């Protein structure tokens, strides 16, 4: 079963990230750099170094601002050669980002509803739709804006795939293999199940980064991805 594993480098420093990358070796070649490492651990320079070494990089900064700032931010991130970057899936922001990334090779992903949120959290934030309804709306808007894909919970991948069509990426965090703690995630799924549901890229953090043997943990997840089910 096709699918790509992305390891989230949610660590405090470049030194910690480089140590983990060394331990993972050839088991992983795609890494996500988010707020924690980007702002506190020289993540931009690390991302460029990974790209220069032939690895793939996903800058997960969830941009949202006025049009000019979105345009400049997306242009700057895309110019690094990164394969993926995120913005919040607001229609106007997605349209601007799609235009800014044209010709760069970077896939712009719209972030729908964070996997740490459920319907009660959305009500508290003032949304009239439940999580599924809001994700579906964002999927339609992402398709119409012309961006490359969507970030959503694996539990919603099957719902949005018909909306997005066969070519747009569906990137799913909140992946929890057999035996892993759910942690602060509320809408989770196993690796193989997520791919069966329509996901193309799985983002995994703590089940790999906190493992005693990260490379073995990554290989076990890749095996689950290949099998389509959680392995006993």
TrEMBL record:
Pathway: Pyrimidine metabolism; UMP biosynthesis via de novo pathway; UMP from orotate: step 2/2. The keyword DNA-binding does not apply. GO terms for molecular function: orotidine-5'-phosphate decarboxylase activity. GO terms for biological process: 'de novo' pyrimidine nucleobase biosynthetic process; 'de novo' UMP biosynthetic process. The active site is at residues 60, 62, 65. Its EC number is 4.1.1.23. It holds the Pfam family OMPdecase. It catalyses: orotidine 5'-phosphate + H(+) = UMP + CO2. It comes from the Bacteria. GO terms for cellular component: cytosol. InterPro entries: Aldolase_TIM (IPR013785), OMPdecase (IPR014732), OMPdecase_AS (IPR018089), OMPdecase_bac (IPR047596), OMPdeCOase_dom (IPR001754), RibuloseP-bd_barrel (IPR011060). Belongs to the OMP decarboxylase family. Type 1 subfamily. NCBIfam families: PRK00230.1 (NF001273), pyrF (TIGR01740). Catalyzes the decarboxylation of orotidine 5'-monophosphate (OMP) to uridine 5'-monophosphate (UMP). Homodimer. This is Orotidine 5'-phosphate decarboxylase. It comes from Devosia enhydra.
